[in-house]
Amino acid sequence: MSILKNTPLAELVTFINKLFAGRMMKNDNPKKEVKTGTGSGRKENGFMEQPVTSLKGIGDKTARLFGKLGVETVEELLHYYPRAYDTFREPQPISELLPETMAAVAGMLTKTADVVKYGHLQVTTVTLRDISGLLTLTWYNMPYLRGTLKAGERFIFRGRIVKKRGRLTMEQPEIYRPEKYASLVHSMQPIYGQTKGLGNKTIAKTVAGALEARDTERDYLPAGLRIKYELAEYNFALEHIHFPKDETELLFSRKRLVFDEFFMFLLSVRLLKDKKEDKQSPCPFVIDGKAAALEEKLPFALTGAQKKVLNEVYADLSGGHIMNRLIQGDVGSGKTIIAVLALLQAAYNGYQGALMVPTEVLARQHFESMNELFTGLSLPVKPILLTGSMTAREKRLAYEKIAAHEADIVIGTHALIQEKVVYDKLGLVITDEQHRFGVGQREMLGSKGMEPHILVMSATPIPRTLAIIIYGDLDISIIDELPAGRQAIKNCVVGKDYRENAYRFIEREARAGRQAYVICPMVEASEMLEAENVIDYTKTLREHLPADIRVEYLHGKMKAKEKNAIMELFAANEIQVLVSTTVIEVGINVPNATIMMIENAERFGLAQLHQLRGRVGRGKDQSYCIMVNSSGEEDARKRLEILNKSNDGFFIASEDLKLRGPGDIFGVRQSGDLEFRLADIFTDADILKTVSDEVKELMDRDPFLECGENRELRRKLDLYLERSYEKLNL
Ligand code: ADP
Ligand code: MG
Predict the structure, then answer these.
(1) Domain extent for 107
(2) Ligand 1 nearest atom to the CA of residue 433, by list position
(3) Considering the entire predicted model, what is its pTM?
(4) In CATH, what number is assigned to the domain containing residue 130?
(5) Which of 42, 534, 654, 692 has the smallest count of CB within 10 Å of its CB?
């Protein structure tokens, strides 16, 4: 394992011991008593379970903002890891600078700063000289800099390089004296995912405060494992993932936490596997001639791969054991119809079936297309929709129908397996493009006395060796063929200067009756990130396209009702161009859409880009994917080139891995629907395999984790399971 090798272990171990010797004593300090009775509803009242308001300086208002980031408790805060780190790099020679990159430059000012007024704007300009050339630097509305930036003085500047009128300049750089910069070079500052009103400084300060105030935890990982794999001590890792001294320390901490993530996850997978081993199904289905007759009547003939997988599913359903199956199939391979046919079998056998999806938009779409199909085939099967945004009254009505078995098929978000939903006879649960159906969910159903068949559908292209580990509790079917007659999507990676051409192309396609998606990373303009946003982009597009081509937007912050209305209009081609965030990423199916234009493509992971692209090429018409690369970085160009070359999800994942290499943690994450906080099943595949072996050995020896130090692990695992269970009831 490459991360293992370059760890100066001895040095770190000494450091940790020193650190925690001091820390343990400090823990007796009574000031660390925390407020209680804040009604968090958790069983334990330890410091980690407290709401963030128990921390110094965090009031209700800030707590609400943290809530937006999914951080309610101190524990969640400490596991809210930095998204990236700001590293103070060695200055670069001016002659080697590239546009649209962050850089540091060192040199001497050729003359004292100029300040020029343009209307309300005061522009301060200097020219910096190093051995390789000259660079202009500008600041806006900071005329007082003139007092600092004097001719002949040496500085280090750090900022973004942009190209203006054919020349490179650095805008709004930070200013450092050489001595100061020398003390900072190579150091890393955490950068957290932020939200409006809650900036990086506040988050970092709050995390630092929480780390300071908390008790150290006993390390639950058996010591043998820690030594064998040179893993950091837990408390050390948690602290230094936030505030690493340098990259070595960061990698050392990260490796430990990645190990933990896989460890907990695979332990829970193993529990599931042990539980289901040869479990008799209380509800074997009868699959009779009706199924074949139904296939005949579908609007299209199933592909060979679809037939094969469908038969595997039917064999499970009727075989006497409880089905636990994963269907893997690239975007557009036609997974939905398999789900629909399986759900119909449940209904024919007198059972109810549930289809769980990650977004309401997708739930509604499945609901509508199922209704349409059933009406077309005159099938007396009743689907019903159940989503979080429905009014209390609508939900109650749905609950009643489900309890009375007036609905055969329930489609929705995770709302559909919540406590309040009581099924009459639930025989099958399918999850589509969803986090895998975990222990928590199954326990939830089990606690209601139900043991339905389970089918998981995923488009994440995971190599078989990894899939067997990650989905250790499931049998795997693969749809390895696309429906006939699909034309390969035509791709291009372009710069911003290509936009005008793209707009003309969108106009032409719209005139020919077809539609386009334009994806932007952000909802609205932000000071923190320079990236296109849905709101402003929609305005721009409206200006660039004729008035009769309707442009609307969609994003996750809109009310469910508005989103549904927009999606319906788009599906009906009342809207021709949909500007959207990645809310449309998974599952959405509008076969008439033929253009996918992705702004700031460099900001997305390849798996995500592949999913986005999968929204086109779903019908008979030639489709196109236009990826706009707004970054000058070579890495970004290379990554996008992989997508440009291929439409094959497995190929893309494996090429991406080659490019990034094991242990590369700074690339864009690739995991798709497998959400780990830090771990990436691709680049951390080595750790994943190691953990898988260790979990197997541990559980074979001590299946209930009852012996010696394993008990501590059991406690942590129970907590982990409880958390994943709680998450379902938010
Ligand atoms: P995904 O696997 O990405 O979920 P879908 O199930 O949404 O894919 O299918 C993509 C599109 O292909 C849909 O419009 C669907 O109706 C269509 N489709 C599915 N199977 C076939 C088939 N065998 N022949 C032709 N079209 C099909
Ligand atoms: Mg799908």
Answers:
(1) 89-185
(2) 4
(3) 0.75
(4) 2.40.50.140
(5) 654
